[in-house]
Amino acid sequence: MTNGQQYEVCERLDEAMSKGLGWSVLQRLRALVELETPSRDVEASVAITRLLGSWWDEIGAKVEVVPTQFGHNLLVEVSGEGDPVLLVGHSDTVWPVGTLTGDVPWSIEGDVLRGPGAYDMKSGLVIMLAAATRLKRLREAGGSHRGIRVVVVCDEEIGSPSTRELMLRAAEGVSAVLGFESPHPDAALKVGRRGSTRVRLAVTGRAAHAALDPESGISAIDELVDQLQKVRGIVADPALGTEVLCNVGTISGGGRANVVPAYAEAEIGLRFLDTATETAVLDGLKQLTPIRDGAALDVEILSSRPAWAPHEADNALLTDLREAATAVGQELDGRPAAGAGDTNLLGSLGLPTADGLGPSGGGAHAVSEHLSVESLGQRIDLLESYLTVR
C-alpha cells in the first residue's frame, strides 16, 4: 500500500466533517485501519508503531519504542502539571491481513464508520492523539494541562503475554489510568472488569489399533472428555464465592477413526469476578489427575489477567470524569464489565482506573464492527476536558 493510498480520504468524510471532526482525525484513523495489524505480525507492528511514534513526535512528545517478540510497543511522555495520567491502548487486532478487501472494508455511511480494528481499538489511539494535539495548542496559548503518559502494546488481543512488565513500568508514579477500549453499549465507562485466564489442558495417551489391539491403547480424547467434566464441576462448585464463566474454546486431537488417539488438548477461557474465586479454581485445575492408568495430564496457564473489582479510587476518578463530561455538555456513567483488557492489571493494583473511553459502536471481533463518528468527536472533547487544568 502506498502512502497516497493510506492517506486518501473518501468523499463521504464530508459528512463526518459536519460533526466537528478535523480532517486529520479521520485521515489518521483511516491510515491506522488500512495498516492491518493482526497479533503476532511483527512487521505490521513495527510499521504501525513507527507511524504512531511519528505523530506523537510532531506534537513534541518524548517517544520510546519497546520491542518484544510479538512486535513493537510505544511509550510516550508529554510534560504537564502534576503526576501524569496514563492512557492505555493496543495496536494489534483480531483480523488477518486481507480483511479490508474482504468482509470488513473501510467505509463511512452517515454516522457509521466501519473497518477492521476501527472500533477495537484504533479509534481509541486516535482519540488520545487528537486530545493531546489540542492540548499542545492550549500550552502554546499559555494554558496548562495534566502530564500525559501513553502506552500502546502490540499483544493485547492474545492476552498481553510479552508486555506485563512494560505496563507496570508505564504505571509508575501515575495519578490515574484511562483505557481506550470500547465502552458499554450505552456509552458508559467500564469501571471494574472480570479477570480472564486462558488454560491449555493437554492429555497424552498411547496409540494403538482401534480394532486389533484397543486394549493396548489409552485414548487421549476419552481422557480429555472426562477431564473437561471435572473442570465443569470445579467452576460450578457452590462453595466458590462468585460466579465463574467457563468456555471450552478449542478442542483438538487424534487423527484417524481406526487409531486410538495418543494426544488431545483443549483451550479453556475462564472469567472471574474476584481473586479468591480465581485462585480456588486455578488451584483445582492444577490438582487434576489422570483417570486412566498410563495417561499423562498437563495444565498450562497461557495468559492471565487478574480480576479488577471497583474500589473507592476508581469511583473518585469516575466522579472527576463526570465533571469533565458536564463541562463539555455530556453525561457520563460507569459500571463493571465482563470482558478483560490491559486495565485489569492496573486496576487490580489499586490505581484509580477507568476503561471504555473509546467511541460508541459495536461488533468488536465481528464483521459488523463499527463505530459512531459523532461519538468519536465526543470522546476527544471529554479527554481534552479531563486533562485540562482549570
SSE map:
Layout: H1 3-7, H2 13-17, H3 23-34, H4 42-58, E1 62-68, E2 71-78, E3 81-90, E4 107-109, E5 112-114, H5 118-140, E6 146-153, H6 164-170, E7 176-179, E8 189-193, E9 195-204, E10 208-209, H7 220-235, E11 244-253, E12 259-260, E13 263-272, H8 275-286, E14 296-305, H9 312-327, E15 334-337, H10 343-348, E16 353-354, E17 361-362, E18 370-372, H11 373-387
Parallel strand pairs: 3-6, 3-7, 7-16, 8-15
Antiparallel strand pairs: 1-2, 2-6, 4-5, 5-18, 9-13, 9-14, 10-12, 11-13, 17-18
Helix pairs in contact: 3-5, 5-11, 9-11
Question: What would you say this structure looks like, in words?
Answer:
With about 400 residues, the chain is α+β, with helices and mostly antiparallel strands. It is built from 11 helices and 18 strands. The protein has helices at about 5, 15, 25-35, 40-60, 120-140, 165-170, 220-235, 275-285, 310-325, 345-350, 375-385, and strands at about 60-70, 70-80, 80-90, 105-110, 110-115, 145-155, 175-180, 190-195, 195-205, 210, 245-255, 260, 265-270, 295-305, 335, 355, 360, 370. A 6-stranded mixed β-sheet has the order 1-2-6-3-7-16, with helices on both faces. It has a 4-stranded antiparallel β-sheet with strand order 4-5-18-17. A hairpin with a 7-residue loop joins strand 17 (about 360) and strand 18 (about 370). Helix 3 (about 25-35) runs antiparallel to helix 5 and helix 5 (about 120-140) crosses helix 11. The longest helix has 23 residues, at about 120-140. The protein is elongated, with a radius of gyration of 23 Å. The relative contact order is 0.17.
